[in-house]
Design goal:
By secondary structure, the protein is mainly beta. 9% of the residues lie in helices and 34% in strands. The longest helix is centred in the last third of the chain and has 31 residues. 35% of the residues are buried.
Length: 1444
């Protein structure tokens, strides 16, 4: 609101002048507004004064006169003794007078016999004079046009350049080039003469095309050389008169070479500065064999040159950029590659833009005493400077002519002499432009007929300050009320004849405040009243002096800085406009850019030169004026860089590498930072033979840090030195260093031999390796490869230079066995390795007093991947605030897989957020504290299991097979997701005949639990179905698997598409005794003997079970009761989903009357209905089978095909709500039953954490193959299982299995070191009319895990007859099967990968005897000893019969 009030007042002032100015003021009301605006705020400006329309006030008002240049002179290049015309033509209604200035001074063309003015105003210079010491015609020219009584305008400034004497800086030299390669012929002259160069081949003008190209410097590029390019080349300068010829160069074209040549640049691009609209050429020519290809990138983006009008790829890879814009600025990199190696070089392109007007000055009408502003806005790069010219003379800023808003010209208090033409001239390094406008000062409109007011009375200064004065007055005597009068206040400085005017805001107002005055200055004021007839008399002039300003100086204007030399800068400035008294001195502050160390110097004048600055360094400068009151306002910082200079230091680390007998490779580093003194543009290499009076050869290369020096002599010692280059010249050189070329070239057609020795010296965390080179020194060695690792040398590899003879391997673990290998290598490959091993030393704590470890470590689970760890530190104060430099290290790991390494992180607080963890995984955490060199031990561990997450991978290994004998039924098998992220609670099977159908149109088959197989019935024959599977856990659904296609069979008995035959393998053997019978039936004699033996063994087993049960009942300690309760809770927590009403107690009776054994032949059926995927019954069975088994295991796995449970079969009736029945299909000749093993994860359920060394009570049943009892007391190792076990399903017993109850398995917690396993019994079913061996031992709970005992501990109850429970035969039953039993082996203490298990073969008789004797000695009751001996004899007889 405060800003709008002056604008309202200015509008009212304009309206008050209407009677005085007449119709003219009505046409341009903004002029006075702009005037008042400029006085009130130096930053405000209005465009209205520049765009005033011509007044329509009658014939006496003058109009704007068109006066401008039609043609302006342009920059011109000429040659000596030629004629030059600088064009100039101006337009005006009356013919203008044309004059010329040279270097700011008017030329006297009347008395000049060589220069004359042409009729159109152009300047003709005949016979240009130019010599080394006399250059009268070269310079800057400007055309000046004048019209009498109107004004003067000046043109842009044009530069006339005269080319110097023709002189060659570099001339072409004879050379040879391979066919298909490129060559560059130098012909460098002065930049002014480059356009006048042409080339001849064999004394005939050379035709240029895309393959043969002349660079702007004059050099010639011949790319893709052919035989026709051979000949004599000559460079010619033609600038009038006799041409000047260079030396002739003979170019030979050699046939293509089959040997490889290194890539080298023949011509590299250099940084360019171009003007918008021009074209730029960046040369890049490379040579080598194979012939290289060239590509360009700009700012790391590859340029597309094919079919591009902007970027053209010319001869040899030269890049031409057409119609340059500012967007083309950047770093251009030329990359040359030929398949063997790649080299690159770069150059910067800087684009400049000449000045361009964004807004030009406009013609202005005004009256005397008004304030006006000419607007002028320009752009360009670099930013142009602006100066104003009035009638050809430069406007010098003053109190009344001011530069505002950077480029605008403000004129205060207009007077009649201010009329004329004003021009805005903008100039930068690449050009200059001008634009003008006319100012017309109008006379006041004549007063109309009527009385005019008299002079205002009693004009007084009611308020006088340092920078403003408030005036008041009374109305004129002629109009005492003055309600309709407006007033204008005219004021000026004393002794200045330029008045300014301030108008009142509204009629009747008799006061005004004059702003922006100077302190301690005398002003003269007068007031004039106006009415509708015009302006009246003026009041008596009033002199008023402003108050002196006891304040500080303002900022010094126009501060500028420019570099004089690499070490000096001159800074200049003006006197502050508000000095507030006499300026006593100035203080110049300067500081190196990027530092905070500002220095100052006292200066008495308005400029100062600072010396002893750093070369090519940016500095900032500012100035503060001081008067008697102290320092004033600081200026803005100006930044300037000192000039560049030659480098003040030599390049670093110059090394020489002998490549062969004729070349040496140089490597170096740039000079140290701070000594470049500019941009490094290249390097100068000097080399010579180390002999007396030998010539020094010189080579200049680009900014790369290596160079191959070729063409040297064999067996000769050379010295080399190198210096860095800037645009200013050559810097300091390195010292001479020498090396000798080989007498003969070394062999690199084969790999190096083995190094002659290798020595290692182990330390705590490092090993020092030293070696000697191979004995055969005639084979090239490019370097050595050191491999090392714990137990294997292939973990890490380090390559070192061929000259190196030792290396220290760091960051090793203490007390670790490392294997180290050393190989020499060259370009052919690596040689034979040399091996050595070493054990790092043990780590010893130097500080004998370690810190106390953190306590109270707790793990708080936040999400599926985040756990917060908190702890306390007893060595801290009670407030637990860390005030010293100690820090804490948190480490964590999971036991899955077992070889997981710890991860660590450091923190300075008493908590840490561990992220990035795996879902549903148990982690252990511990913390240690470190302070200085002291560290604590690791704290006690805390455990936490992350939350579950939805599965992030689909089920895998999805297979579909047809069910034997039921072509409309298929069996889908799969494996759990790799990333289950929790316990799988079910699957959803989608199937459809259209793979492209929407997913909601597919048929859905839910699978409850974690089963891995499912049957689908009532499908259409000979139809292609597509199946997808999706896993589910407590958090939701996972992704779907890829669609699997399966085509149902055409008719009954034919296998569906995708079914595969059973591969029984070469290791499969049918059971003995049945090879002669077509159905594997034993002979009557063998049958009777087997029956007698098995019945006897069964009776003895029952007796032993009773004895052991009586013995167990006596041990009624509290510990056993807890164990039994724990076992019962385990059984109760794993109830299967069978019908509880079918549960009945387990039957321990063995049906001896149904005992029948039949040998089983190899099944000839090629179409099995089962895959070998087990049916897991709990979350421990989800882990997939390890893939590390060898091929014979896979073969044997295929030979034991189990049978699919009907429990997973889904029928249409079932989908309509019927309860599915659990049926078990069988082949006519089922394979042998085996036990499938599944790992039990210790993290899934606490009920499955069994203790090592626990033994099953006699009530626990074990199922073994009759001929292959498991060796009692034998520990099963990891490798044994991996190489001898298979995974197949057991077929269930025909009897109904209890689903929710089992026998309690009591175990003793004895020896934690012993290895235990767990088994579940299985059974087989035979179809009607077939007699198959079946284990009729009723199992305990289906999820119950049984321990496989190792050597039993002392005092444990054990019955050696139990593992030998005979396999019993049972007739087929029509009762439905409600449960499927799977055997599982639980690995305690650590998680093992899942592996199939095959029932091992029976041990030898002697081995069995020895094992039984070992176990027998562990039992204390005498009653068991006799029974054990009797059982041992029965086992021997049984083994003898079965093996006969």
């Amino acid at each position: 609101m405060a800003a709008e009030a002056p604008r309202r007042r200015r509008r009212r002032r304009v309206l008050s002048l209407v009677p005085f100015l007449g119709c003219l003021w009505l046409l341009q009301p903004a002029a006075s507004s702009s005037s008042s605006s400029s006085r009130s705020s130096s930053s405000s400006s209005s465009s209205s004064p520049q765009q005033n329309p011509p007044p329509a006030a009658g014939p006496s008002v003058r109009t704007f006169t068109p006066f401008y240049f039609i043609v302006e002179p342009m920059d011109t290049l000429s040659v000596r003794a030629s004629s030059v015309v600088l064009n100039c033509s101006a337009y005006c209604e009356s013919s203008p007078k044309i004059e010329w200035k040279k270097d700011g001074t008017f030329l006297n063309l009347g008395s000049d016999d060589r220069r004359q003015l042409l009729p159109d105003g152009s300047l003709l210079i005949n016979s240009v004079v130019h010599s080394k010491h006399n250059k009268p015609d070269e310079g800057y020219y400007q055309c000046v046009a004048t019209v009498e009584s109107l004004g003067t305008i000046v043109s842009r400034t044009a530069k006339l350049t005269v080319a110097g004497m023709p002189r060659f800086i570099a001339q072409p030299e004879s050379a040879s080039v391979y066919r298909g390669n490129s060559i560059v012929l130098n012909c460098e002259v002065n930049a002014d003469l480059a356009p006048f160069i042409r080339w001849e081949l064999d004394h005939q003008p050379l035709f240029l095309d895309d393959r043969v190209f002349k660079l702007p410097s004059g050099a010639l590029i011949v790319s893709n050389a052919t035989d026709e390019d051979g000949g004599t080349y000559c460079c010619i300068i033609e600038i009038g008169g006799a041409p000047k010829y260079s030396d002739e160069a003979v170019i030979k074209v050699l046939p293509e070479s089959e040997s490889l040549l290194d890539l080298v640049f023949l011509r590299q691009p250099s940084s360019l500065t171009k003007v918008t609209g021009q074209s730029a050429i960046l040369p890049c020519v490379a040579a080598g064999i194979p012939t290289p290809f060239i590509k360009w990138t700009r700012n790391e983006e590859e340029l597309v040159t094919e079919s591009s009008q902007k970027f053209l790829l010319l001869a040899g890879g030269t890049l031409k950029i057409n119609d340059i814009t500012e967007d083309d600025t950047g770093t251009y990199i030329c990359i040359a590659y030929n398949g063997n190696e790649t080299i690159e070089t770069q150059a910067d392109l800087t684009v400049q833009a000449p000045p361009e007007f964004l807004k030009q000055p406009s013609n202005i009408y005004a009256h005397e005493s008004m304030d006006i502003v000419f607007e002028c806005d320009v752009t360009g790069k670099p930013a142009p400077t602006v100066k104003w010219v009035k009638n050809g003379d430069v406007v010098i800023p003053s109190d009344y002519f001011k530069i505002v808003n950077e480029h605008n010209l403000q004129v205060l208090g207009l007077v009649k002499s201010d009329e004329g033409f004003y021009q805005c001239i903008a100039e930068n390094d690449v050009g200059n432009i001008q634009a003008g406008a006319q100012l017309i000062i109008l006379d006041h409109a004549p007063a109309t007929t009527g009385p005019l007011p008299s002079a205002p009375r009693d004009v007084v200064a009611s308020l006088v300050s340092t920078r403003f004065i408030k005036l008041t007055w009374r109305a004129p005597a002629s109009d005492s009320h003055g309600d309709n009068l407006t007033y204008s206040v005219f004021y000026t400085k004393e002794s200045i004849n330029r008045e300014r005017v301030e108008n009142t805001s509204h009629p009747g107002e008799m006061q005004v405040t004059i702003q922006n005055l100077m302190p301690e200055t005398v002003y003269i004021f007068r007031v004039v009243a106006q009415n509708k007839h015009g302006a009246g008399e003026s009041s008596v002039p009033l002199k008023v002096a402003t108050q002196p300003e006891v304040q500080l100086p303002g900022p010094a204007p126009n501060i500028r800085a420019y570099a004089n030399s690499p070490t000096s800068v001159t800074v200049s400035w003006g006197t502050p406009l508000s000095g507030n008294g006499e300026i006593q001195n100035y203080k110049l502050y300067y500081m190196e850019k990027g530092t905070d160390n500002e220095q100052d110097i006292d200066v008495g004048g308005l400029s100062y030169t600072i010396t002893s600055l750093k070369k090519y360094t940016e500095y900032s400068f500012r100035v503060v004026a001081y008067n008697k009151h102290g320092p004033g306002v600081s200026t803005q910082d100006v930044v300037i860089r000192t000039l560049s200079d030659v480098p003040s230091a030599a390049p670093q680390n110059l090394t020489l590498e002998v490549q062969n007998s004729k070349s040496i490779l140089m490597h170096w580093q740039p000079p140290p930072a701070g000594t470049h003194n500019g941009q490094i543009t290249g390097y100068k290499i000097r080399y010579r033979k180390v002999t007396r009076k030998s010539d020094v050869m010189e080579s200049i290369v680009g900014t790369q840090l290596s160079q191959l020096i070729e063409g040297l002599e064999r067996g000769t010692e050379y010295s080399f030195r190198i210096a860095a280059l800037t645009v200013n010249g050559t810097g300091l050189s390195t010292d001479w260093i020498s090396t000798e070329t080989f007498e003969s070239d070394l062999d690199e057609s084969r790999v190096p031999e083995v190094p002659s020795s290798l020595h290692v010296r182990p330390l705590v965390t490092s090993i020092v390796v030293s070696w000697t080179p191979p004995e055969n020194q005639n084979i090239v060695v490019r370097g050595y490869a050191i491999g090392y690792g714990v137990g294997s040398p292939h973990a890490q590899t380090i390559k070192v230079d061929y000259k190196q003879r030792y290396y220290t391997i760091e960051n090793l673990d203490p007390s670790s066995h490392y294997v180290i290998t050393l190989k020499a290598y060259n370009n052919v490959g690596e040689g034979i390795p040399l091996y050595e091993s070493a054990v790092t030393r043990a780590y010893t704590v130097p500080d004998p007093s370690p810190m106390m470890p953190p306590v109270g470590v707790q793990a708080s689970i936040l999400s599926h991947d985040t756990i917060r760890i908190t702890w306390a530190d007893n060595s801290l104060p009670k407030n637990q605030k860390v005030s010293d430099a100690r820090y804490y290290t948190v480490r964590w790991k999971t036991n899955i897989p077992a070889n997981t390494k710890y991860k660590t992180a450091n923190t300075t607080t008493l908590s840490f957020l561990v992220t990035g963890l795996k879902p549903n995984t148990l982690y252990e955490f511990s913390v240690m504290v470190t302070k200085g060199r002291r560290s604590s031990t690791w704290s006690m561990t805390a455990h936490g299991t992350t939350f579950e997450l939805v599965p992030t991978s689909p089920p895998k290994d999805v297979t579909v097979v047809s069910k034997e004998g039921k072509p409309r039924t298929i069996i889908v098998n799969w494996q759990p997701p790799s990333e289950a992220n929790g316990k799988i609670t079910g699957y959803i099977i989608y199937y459809s005949t259209d793979v492209n159908a929407e997913i909601h149109d597919w048929v859905i088959e839910p699978v409850v639990g974690n089963r891995l197989t499912h049957q689908i019935q009532e499908l259409t024959l000979d139809t292609a179905y597509y199946f997808k599977i999706q896993a589910r856990n407590s958090k939701g659904m996972g992704p779907m698997s890829e669609a699997v296609q399966f085509r149902t069979p055409k008719a009954l008995g034919s296998a569906g598409k995708g079914s595969r035959p059973v591969d029984v393998g070469t290791d499969y053997k049918p059971p003995m005794g049945g090879s002669n019978s077509p159905h594997g039936s034993p002979s009557p004699l063998e049958y009777n003997m087997l029956l007698v033996i098995i019945v006897s063994v069964g009776v003895i087993t029952i007796v032993i079970v009773v004895i052991v049960a009586v013995f167990c009942t006596r041990r009624t300690t509290s510990h056993q009761k807890k164990k039994r309760a724990a076992c019962k809770s385990v059984n109760g927590s794993h109830k299967y989903k069978g019908n509880s009403k079918d549960v009945k107690p387990p039957d321990l009776w063995i049906h001896h009357e149904r005992l029948e054994l039949k040998p089983i032949d190899k099944s000839p059926d090629p179409n099995p209905i089962m895959t070998d995927t087990p049916i897991p019954r709990n979350s421990q069975d989800i882990t997939p089978v390890d893939n590390s088994m060898d091929s014979n295991i896979h073969q044997r796995r295929n030979s034991y095909r189990g049978h699919e449970s009907e429990d997973s079969m889904s029928t249409l009736a079932g989908r309509r709500g019927m309860r599915p029945k659990m049926m078990m299909p069988f082949d006519s000749q089922p394979p042998q039953p085996v036990i499938s093993a599944h790992p039990i994860h210790s993290l899934d359920n606490p009920h499955h954490h069994f203790h090592s060394g626990s033994l099953a009570s006699p009530t626990c049943s074990y199922l073994h193959h009759q001929a292959n009892p498991w060796p009692v007391g034998t520990s099963v190792s990891h490798s044994d299982r991996a190489n001898s076990t298979e995974s197949v399903r057991n077929t269930p017993s025909t009897d109904t299995m209890p689903a929710s109850s089992s026998q309690t398995c009591c175990a003793e917690h004895q020896e934690p070191e012993s290895t235990t396993g767990s088994y579940l019994p299985g059974s087989q079913e035979e179809e009607t009319g077939q007699n198959l061996p079946t284990a009729h031992v009723r199992p305990s709970h289906p999820l119950k895990s049984f321990a496989v005992p190792a050597v039993p501990p002392t005092g444990a109850t054990f019955d050696p007859a139990l593992p030998s429970t005979p396999l019993l035969s049972q007739q087929a039953s029509s009762h439905p099967v409600h449960s499927v039993k799977t055997a599982s082996i639980g690995t305690l203490g650590r998680t093992r990968p899942p592996m199939p298990v095959v029932v091992p073969s029976a041990p030898e008789v002697q081995e069995t005897t020895r094992m039984l004797e070992d176990t027998e000695s562990n039992y204390e009751p005498d009653e068991l000893t006799k029974e054990m001996a009797h059982l041992e004899g029965l086992m021997k007889d049984l083994n003898a019969i079965t093996t006969a």
